[in-house]
Amino acid sequence: MPATGCVILCVTLLLTSASGMEPSRDRCLRSESLDLADCRFRGLVRVPPGVPHGVRLLDLSGNRLTDVRSGSFVGLWSLRILLMSNNSIRTLQPRFLSSLQFLETLDLSFNQLDLLPRDFSRSLTPLQELRLDHNLLRRLDSASLGDLENLRKLDLSHNRIRTVDVGAFDGLSKLVLLSLEGNRLSALPDGLFKRLRSLEVLLLSHNYISVIGTEVLAPLRSLTLLALQGNRLQTVRFKTFQRLQTTTTSLLMSSNPWTCDCDLQRVFDKIRRVRRLRAYDYSDIVCQAPEQHAGRSLASLDAQLCVAETASLLVITVTVMLTVIGALVKAENNRKNKPVTA
Questions:
Q1: Residue 231 burial by CB count (10 A; 0-12/13-18/19+): exposed, middle or buried?
Q2: pLDDT digits (tens, 9 = 90+) for 42-64
Q3: What's the pLDDT score for residue 50?
Q4: Which of the four, 137, 199, 234, 329, has the lowest number of CB atoms within 10 Å?
Q5: How many of the other CB atoms lie within 10 Å of CB of 152?
Q6: What span, in angstroms and rounded, lies between the C-alpha atoms of 166 and 242?
Q7: What is the DSSP string of 212-226?
Q8: CATH 3.30.420.40 fits 1-180, yes or no
């Protein structure tokens, strides 16, 4: 079912909860005509039994679930959309979704997950959209997401992720959108996105990123938006962005503690000259260092940084030359004034 179908069905839940839906013995509202079961905000502490096998959308949002046990969804062969946001889920037992062979959308956002089971994605090959945002995840290993070969949207924003194994995203060859906003990543090592050739949107804002590998962006041949605002970048290398072989990519890079010098100015000047790269928020890039430029935008300094650097180099060069010439003249004078011995 397309993502728009999910939105339509979810809205329909609200419109039909007062009419056309009957409470089942498990305290959920059911609509056979729409193939959905509305179990929202019913104080449930476990997945209710007796959900009809023909249900395509099951909404368990806003309950008091703390774990999801193996076998909780046995028999729900038709289920396409499973919504479990805004619970208190801390653990997912092994193969908890093993019977859902055709699931396309899974929402586990706003829970308390701190770890994904290594077999989390097993049997979820058809999944197209996965929301894990607003949990307590600390790391992603190379096994948890390995079987999600049809996944198109992955939201991991607003967790506590510090570490992502190189290889964690290797199975996601069809991924179009990846959000890692609001985590605790400090670096983007080479190889992290090596299989994400279909990725169009990469959201990395509000992490602690200070280091970006030279080759980390090279595989992203379809990237249209890269968001890096609110990190700890002081400088970047043009070579990193030059590796992006895309038709066009917009870059968002404001709200970083930039050290504004000639090197940084040259990097952004080159980025702006490359037709397939667009520094979308260039006018909002503000210097934090050195002190004399703190609070000023890089754009307002224009070419001053490189002019100042050139002038400084010229002064140093002239000073060195004058010192050398002075030393040579002094040496020559000493030679001439040296008394001649018989």
A1: buried
A2: 999 999 988 888 899 999 999 99
A3: 83
A4: 329
A5: 19
A6: 22
A7: E-TTTTTT-TT--EE
A8: no
**Which residues of the chain are modeled with pLDDT < 50?**
1-25, 310-311, 314-315, 318
Please give the class, per CATH, of domain 185-302.
Answer: alpha beta
Helix (H) or strand (E) holding 143: none
CATH topology identical between 1-180 and 185-302: yes
Q: CA 30, CA 41: separation in Å to the nearest integer?
A: 14
pLDDT of the residue at 5? 44
pLDDT computed for residue 257 by the predictor: 98
Query: What size, in residues, is the chain?
Result: 342
Other Cβ atoms closer than 10 A to 287? 22
Q: Compute CA distances 330 → 92, 212, 327, 339, whole Å.
A: 83, 52, 5, 16
What is the amino acid identity at position 340?
A: V
Give residue limits of the domains in the chain. Answer: 1-180, 185-302
Cα distance between residue 299 and residue 253, in whole Å:
13
User: Are the beta carbons of 155 and 135 closer than 8 angstroms?
Assistant: no
Report residue 281 as tokens. 């928020």
Cα–Cα distance, 78 to 266 (Å, whole number): 57
Burial 200-221 (b: 16+ CB within 10 A, else e): bbbbbbbbebbebbebbbbbbe
- Tokens describing residue 129: 């959209």
Tokens at 11, concatenated: 């809205």
Residues 6+ apart with CB under 8 A from 268: 279, 282, 285, 298
Q: How far apart are the first and last CA of the chain?
A: 109
Q: What distance lies between CA 211 and its chain's CA centroid? A: 15
Q: What is the DSSP letter of 207?
A: S
Beta-bridge mates of residue 140: 164
- Render 90-117 in DSSP notation, one character per residue: -EE-TTTTTT-TT--EEE--SS------
